[in-house]
Each structure stands twice: as C-alpha cells, then as structure tokens.
Amino acid sequence: MPVTTAAAAATAPALGPDVDALRRQDPELAEILLAELERQSTGLQLIAAENFTSPAVLTALGSPLANKYAEGYPGARHHGGCEFVDVAERIAVDRAKALFGAEHANVQPHSGSSSVLAAYAALLRPGDTVLAMGLPHGGHLTHGSPANFSGRWFEFVGYGVDAESGLIDYEQILALARAHKPKAVVCGSISYPRHLDYSAFRDIADDVGAYLIADAAHPMGLVAGGAAPSPVPYADVVCATTHKVLRGPRGGMLLCGSDLAERIDRAVFPFTQGGAQMHTIAAKAVAFGEAAAPAFTTYAHKVVANARALAEELTRRGLLITTGGTDTHLLTADTGRFALDARTARGRLAAAGLVLDTCALPHGDVRGLRLGTAAVTTQGMGQEEMTRIAELFAAALHSDAEPGRLRGEVRELVRRFPPYPG
Ligand SMILES: *Cc1c(COP(=O)(O)O)cnc(C)c1O
C-alpha cells in the first residue's frame, strides 16, 4: 500500500526526522502514524478533552528519556543513572508549583484517573463514603462508577444539577453532605460547562469535616491561563490531567499543601504506580513552561471566547445548549430542533469531518453532544471560524445533508489552520 497522501506528507515534520527511517523499517506502522496525522490535520477536532501538543512536547515524548527506569523520587531512586531525569522531574515539579501557586506537586501520575486513585488512596479507606457528582450529571468514571475501582471500593453518593437550569445546586450538596457524612467531597466533572464555586464546596466540606478533592482534569489549562478560578487555594488535593486544555503530554498530576505532600507522594509511588515515565515528565515540564508564557494566557481566554461564540452560533441554528452557554472550553448540547438521537447526530457529524463525543445530559436519561474549543483554538481559529463551524454543524445534522460536500468544506477550513504547519 502506498504509505502516504500528499496532505500527510506536507505535515509529516510533526512526526520528526525519523519518520523516514520508521517507514523503511516498519511501513505498516509508519502508515498508521501518517494516517492518524492526516486525520487530525483534515477534520475538525472538537472532542472537549483533546488538544494539539507543541512540537517541543512531542520531541520530549519521543526522546531517549523513554528508556529510563526511575522508581521513587529525585534524590531517592531505586535505580542508578537517574542524574539527568532527576533534574527533569525537579524542573517539572517546580514549574507546576509556580504555575498553580501550590505548595507541593507530584507529576508522576500516568493519567488523570491514576491521580484520582492516588488522591483517594492518600485520604480514604475502602468502604468510606464519598460525595461526588453523579455520573448521569457529568461525574467521571472515577467518581463512583460501578465498573471502576471507585464504585467498587467506596460508597459513593451522587449530587446533581438542577433539571431546569442545568446548574449545580449547592444547597442540595450541603443537604446530602449533612445526611451522609462523607469522608471526602469531590468537585469536578467531564461535562459541566460552568465555573465551579470552589469556596462553596470548601464550606460544604468543612461543615461536615470532610476532605475536599478537586478533580480539575478539564479546566486546569484554563486555570493556568487565568481564564478560570483556581481550586488550589480551596481543595486539600487537586487532581488534574496534563493533556486537555493544558496542552501537555497525556498524563496526570496532583497538587496539595505541604501537610499532605508525603501522603500524596507515597500514594502515587509505591502504592499505585511503579516507575515514573520520565519522557512524559520531561514533556510535562516543557508544557508547564509553555503554559507560563504570556501567549498561553491569551490562548486560554481565546478558548473561552471561542466556546461562547460557538454556543451562541449553535443556539441560533436550533441546538439546545445546556445552561444556555458556557464559561469554559466545553459545551454540551441537545440536538434541539433536529430531534436526532445523539449517536445518529455524532455519526452524521463524523461523516462530515466534525469529530466530537456524546455525553449524558442532566434532564432524564437523554444523551447529548459534548464539544470543546481547545484544539481548534490551538490551530489559530477565532470567532469567524466558530460561525463557520456552527454552519457546517447544522448542515451536517440535516436529513438531506451531503456529507461528501461538507467533508470537503471542513477539509478546506482546516487546511487554512494546520495543527502542525509544515
Ligand atoms: C479526563 C478526566 C479524568 C481522567 O483522565 P484520564 O487521563 O483519561 O484517566 C478524570 N476526571 C475528570 C473529571 C476528567 O475530565
């Protein structure tokens, strides 16, 4: 099979100079890498949890640090030869602390879920009661799904959002906290489009003597750019991913005060993980460095402005946006006047090259669509393009849509905003 298309070849620098060597050695896999690069470079990536990392982050990820075993922490490793990776991890920790104003950072969690597992391991015992957003309302798997360790090992009580407004009802959370006396309250969601009132969550946790765990996997990039309130001053432990709006490598991190530092570190290694992934930690350091630059503040605010514009333009075209808009990078929508079930809608959109997720919606058991603007904003798109995306979106949902023609128009739009300019 021919290895690549013209479009992929034009953007192949994103894969580094070694792609030609890989092509000679393993054309089958080289073709997959190039095909995925082309997929990312020719469609609209609207999945709320995704972004495009910088070439610098990709370089760290593809570096020989990937070879290094480094169990433990800098200066206290179980392996020899850690003199350079120790420095990389110290830099990552220092940058994370400075970026978020935290007393302590642990940058080793392999993913957001691993960071939540470690937070629970540090603060809870199996069988403890935890109050978190219910999964049908936007809670994550790690917030009590019976298919996940969280639901198996802890007693979760779920809070929700108001059926009419779609907004979090803090009175209800306080009432549930008083009734169930949880050991921890978790705030954070995979789909809630509004800012959280961390101070209100802190008051509720204090009212019942519970820990407050903020699972800020989604908004942490906005926090870094000053476009969302920070959970750091309020939560005992903050869990996060580094790959969503924050635009770093796939992975997790934890922030806490000095009082919990040792417990958190031991909960990551040796309790829930073995060797740290030093290439990923180096890439996290690069991403934290990028996020500390003024350009990232501009980026974070633009992400929100784009999400607001997109919500408005989609509303104008008949979609029903939960809570009537957004404060963040993400929005959730009912297909509104198109009256399509979410899976059909997602399929039609995918056929036109608009890639997004379905998600649970608060009213009843309907599913909706969830989309975000982190990736398209990294590509340099602005308000004008949000209007264009909304047009394409509505056109793709029509029963008489022509997916082939729309796919061409999406390709043309994205061609002007390549994620990895040659
Ligand atoms: C994305 C997310 C996670 C999990 O991240 P993974 O890296 O996929 O494990 C956890 N909690 C919330 C709220 C998230 O949005």
TrEMBL record:
<comment type="pathway">
    <text>Amino-acid biosynthesis; glycine biosynthesis; glycine from L-serine: step 1/1.</text>
</comment>
<dbReference type="InterPro" id="IPR001085">
    <property type="entry name" value="Ser_HO-MeTrfase"/>
</dbReference>
<feature type="domain" description="Serine hydroxymethyltransferase-like">
    <location>
        <begin position="23"/>
        <end position="391"/>
    </location>
</feature>
<feature type="modified residue" description="N6-(pyridoxal phosphate)lysine">
    <location>
        <position position="244"/>
    </location>
</feature>
<dbReference type="InterPro" id="IPR015421">
    <property type="entry name" value="PyrdxlP-dep_Trfase_major"/>
</dbReference>
<comment type="similarity">
    <text>Belongs to the SHMT family.</text>
</comment>
<protein>
    <recommendedName>
        <fullName>Serine hydroxymethyltransferase</fullName>
        <ecNumber>2.1.2.1</ecNumber>
    </recommendedName>
</protein>
<comment type="subunit">
    <text>Homodimer.</text>
</comment>
<dbReference type="InterPro" id="IPR015424">
    <property type="entry name" value="PyrdxlP-dep_Trfase"/>
</dbReference>
<keyword id="KW-0554">One-carbon metabolism</keyword>
<keyword id="KW-0663">Pyridoxal phosphate</keyword>
<feature type="site" description="Plays an important role in substrate specificity">
    <location>
        <position position="243"/>
    </location>
</feature>
<keyword id="KW-0963">Cytoplasm</keyword>
<dbReference type="InterPro" id="IPR049943">
    <property type="entry name" value="Ser_HO-MeTrfase-like"/>
</dbReference>
<dbReference type="InterPro" id="IPR015422">
    <property type="entry name" value="PyrdxlP-dep_Trfase_small"/>
</dbReference>
<feature type="binding site">
    <location>
        <begin position="139"/>
        <end position="141"/>
    </location>
    <ligand>
        <name>(6S)-5,6,7,8-tetrahydrofolate</name>
    </ligand>
</feature>
<comment type="function">
    <text>Catalyzes the reversible interconversion of serine and glycine with tetrahydrofolate (THF) serving as the one-carbon carrier. This reaction serves as the major source of one-carbon groups required for the biosynthesis of purines, thymidylate, methionine, and other important biomolecules. Also exhibits THF-independent aldolase activity toward beta-hydroxyamino acids, producing glycine and aldehydes, via a retro-aldol mechanism.</text>
</comment>
<dbReference type="GO" id="GO:0004372">
    <property type="term" value="F:glycine hydroxymethyltransferase activity"/>
</dbReference>
<keyword id="KW-0808">Transferase</keyword>
<comment type="pathway">
    <text>One-carbon metabolism; tetrahydrofolate interconversion.</text>
</comment>
<dbReference type="Pfam" id="PF00464">
    <property type="entry name" value="SHMT"/>
</dbReference>
<dbReference type="InterPro" id="IPR039429">
    <property type="entry name" value="SHMT-like_dom"/>
</dbReference>
<keyword id="KW-0028">Amino-acid biosynthesis</keyword>
<feature type="binding site">
    <location>
        <position position="135"/>
    </location>
    <ligand>
        <name>(6S)-5,6,7,8-tetrahydrofolate</name>
    </ligand>
</feature>
